[in-house]
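seq as requested:
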Amino acid sequence: MATDVEVPALGESITEGTLAQWLKKPGEAVAADEPIASLETDKVSVEVPSPVAGVLTEQLVQEGDNVAVGAVIARIDEKATAGATAASAPALAAAEATTNPAGAGETPALRGDTTAPVAETEPEEDHVTTLSPAVRRAVLEYHVDPTKIRGTGKDGRLTKDDVIAAAEAQKTEAPQAKAPAAPAPAAPAPAQQAKAPSAPGERKEERVKMTRLRQTVARRLKEAQNTAAMLTTFNDVDMSAVIDARARYKDLFEKKHGIRLGFMGFFVKACALAAKDIPAVNASIEGDEIVYHDYLDVSVAVSAPKGLVVPVVRNADRLSFAEIEKTIADYGRRAKEGTLGIEEMQGGTFTISNGGVFGSLLSTPIINPPQSAVLGMHRIEERPVAVKGQVVIRPMMYLALSYDHRLIDGREAVTFLVRVKEAIEDPTRLLIDL
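struct tokens:
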């Protein structure tokens, strides 16, 4: 008897997702709790585990389809065995060859299949590399063989960066591969022969459906612009004191806590200190009421493969530097792996976004509703500044505070940003609560 695989609960207020990728094919053996598909929700990717051990017999939806929570997407036959699966493989291959003769001579990845066998130099175990749509596009663009690339993603899957790195290595090795005497030319691969070179000046277009995450980000950002009376105030901060503190204590800090001392801990603590003086920055509007929070839950913008996500550091005002840095480092790692949970993305009261890691000098960040303010950090750049009548070179950073003018007055916004500046330029204030 077959067991249904249902879409699991995806989090509060989330009723559906998009089936982004099948991780198993019909006829493949699966273990209990082994992921068989990846779902994309409005905020994160969620893997769908198999409820039982057996063989995947049916896929009831296709990649790209929207599926509701509780919907049946596949069936697992508990009585089937791996041996039966292996025996059925030739039949599946023959059926594929009959229905898709045009694919002859192409690797499975270049045909658009989601899996490709690994290189012959790998162990003889039945190992496959799962290719996402983005990786498949990169494989086609860079003309590399995915079967000869070792993936660095979760469970050994290929990432786009793996493909790009392999392409760069291929370019480097190409000149060295030339022998002094040219051997007899070998027959080129049919798939590569069939690919005609692009004509000079040819103009191309590619249409790619927006991911559910990107659609949600676009909708929420536009809602923020349409709803809030947004305004941005700027200041710059001398990072000398923080840089000196990190240089003095980074080794001791890492030795004691097992984590590097970064800049974010200083800014989170500085915002917590400033929010005590200007509570409106940590408040929100609900209907005709203002909700003030006696805690600071900081949404920290983190870059993920499918877009920007904002996991929340809970009770950041009560955490130590080490606890803040450990939490942010963990979020950053899991954002890249796509393993952040829905509950970790909800409920922030204030946001910090660090565009400086990408080289941004200045920006006007958009608030994250229902929050009323967001702090934008930028790159540190040595600039000439006047100090006590003398022009000196200092490591400076521009700060930007975007805020909802319906709730926060200009005086409050400027005062908050000045408090942050003072705490960063004199970190002792963070210890004595000034």
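The radius of gyration is 27 Å.
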